[in-house]
Amino acid sequence: MKGSNEADWEMRPSGMLVQKREDDSASSNPTTITIKVSYASQDFDLPVPSEFTFGEVKSVISQIIGLEPKVQKLLFRGKEKEDHEYLHLAGVKDNSKVLVMEEKTVEDKNPEEVKVTTEISRGAEAVAEVRKEVDKLSEQVSAVQAVVFGGSNVEEKDIICLTEMLMRQLLKLDGIDAEGEGKIQRKMEVRRVQSLVETMDAVKARNANPFSNNSNAVSVTTQWETFESGVGSLNAPPPPRPSSTVVIEDWEQFE
Q1: What is the 8-class DSSP label of residue 226?
Q2: Cβ contacts of residue 235 below 8 Å, gap of 6+?
Q3: Closest-CA residue to 35 (of 88, 85, 84, 101)
Q4: Of 17, 27, 178, 208, which has the maximum CB count within 10 A?
Q5: Long-range CB contacts (< 8 A, 24+ apart) of 5-11?
Q6: Please, are residues 87 and 52 in contact by the beta-carbon 8 Å criterion?
Q7: Are strands 97-102 and 72-76 parallel, antiparallel or unpaired?
Q8: Domains, the chain, ranges and CATH?
Q9: 68 burial level (CB within 10 Å; 0-12, 13-18, 19+)
Q10: pLDDT tens per residue, the chain (255 residues)?
Q11: First to last CA, the chain
Q12: Do the Cβ atoms of 56 and 63 come closer than 8 Å?
């Protein structure tokens, strides 16, 4: 039986005989590490258990700098960490650096910034509403254009009414105060409506003066007299007869 002063020995895989270490009951306790926290112009050391989550670290930091956990952003190695992530699993060790940033909420934003953002959103929505109306009018323009350029006529009042409806959309667009992306969309929609108005002007002109189909057209094929010199005769053929008959004049050729 071994005495109380006798040490236990164990053989390492390398073959070296070393004194066996006694189990340390404290080894089962969480390891405390010190992380270096940086916030604005403040830098301080924060001792925390390595098994803490970043969310728990936020709670501890909140007691020191007075910043609510919900508005804190913790960055480790340049990446924002989620509240449920554990320090030791993320690679946080003793003397690791953690950056604290404040995330602005809607209430904390500048009232002017909120106002501008709201106006931009409203402008884009207004342009979208006009675009829906223009889409419907564009279909009507295409239908009328197909009828008129297909050789048929439509009532002139229908053309005038459709043109006036397009002009109303231009007035709506002119009254929209938009910025940023909304301003670009408004400009594109204005050009689109102007193009549709120009199309309606062409339709109106065609509807008022349709091409006439002349069924009494005369086709004349003439063979001109050729002399030995190769020069054609200067004598013009007689005028065509006023009928649909195809006339072929054979002129006498001299040897």
Answers
A1: B
A2: 225
A3: 88
A4: 178
A5: none
A6: yes
A7: antiparallel
A8: 32-102 (3.10.20.90), 115-208 (1.20.58.120)
A9: exposed
A10: 444 445 566 554 444 554 554 444 444 566 999 999 999 888 999 999 999 999 999 999 999 998 999 999 999 988 899 999 999 999 999 999 999 998 865 555 555 554 555 566 777 888 888 999 999 999 999 999 999 998 898 899 999 999 999 999 999 888 888 777 778 888 999 999 999 999 999 999 999 887 644 333 333 343 444 444 444 444 445 555 554 444 455 555 555
A11: 151
A12: no
Interaxial angle between packed helices 181-208 and 111-149, expressed in degrees from 0 to 180 and rounded to the nearest 10: 20
Torsion angle of C-alpha atoms 117, 120, 121, 126, degrees rounded to 10: 160
The structure's pTM equals 0.40
CA distance 43 to 97: 10
